[in-house]
Amino acid sequence: MKERTYSVLLETIEKKLRSGELHVGDRLPGERALADKYGISRASVREGLQILNAVGLVRSATGSGPKSGAVVASEPSEALSWAMRMHIATKTFPIADMVSTRVLLEGQAAHDAALSEDSPERTATLERARAYLTELDNPDLPNDRFHFCDARFHYEISSLSNNITLKTVIQSLHQATVSYVMEAVPLLDDWSATKIALQEQHWAILEAVTNHEPEQAKERVTKHITWFHDLIK
User: Fold this and answer.
1) CA-CA-CA-CA dihedral for 26, 32, 36, 38, to nearest 10
2) Are residues 134 and 217 in the same domain?
3) Which pTM does this prediction carry?
């Protein structure tokens, strides 16, 4: 009889997550216990756990005792961004298509963010966004920190859309394209002037979202994304 493979483990964990029998934060049994339970080899268990780790569904803890083994997690953006980066590298996902997708998704996210109701959580999120923009105003900010704060600003705005899928995909798109952006920036004629223009756009987006102006927020995000990528393409 053909040996059962790691797919048994993946399918079982999916079913248990769907049924509610397994939750984020739960610890999976050890390799030997999983192998015995599902009638597969420990090598197949390890392969299955590696796949689950790659897609952000488990975190493997090292060591021994009750705190060792894999823990169920929920980190989809890392897995999505990794897959997107690989497909960008193979030219399967053209950068132009990624930009168009960002325009569609982030425009909608900014629109929905502007419509979000006032609350302590909204105020706190807007303050975090404002703090990132304040840091971005520093002309001496290193480029890697600039790109980090830029991405975090967009993440905070998208989080106000109250759509976890939208927020996750947007975060993944940023992570997937950051290498492309960082490679293009040194080729610009005047990066300092570009940063000033980007910041003016960022502050305008924040203003529209803060003031509950959905159409303005959507329009400003759309112009912001297309302007920058037209500059570096």
Assistant:
1) 50
2) yes
3) 0.77
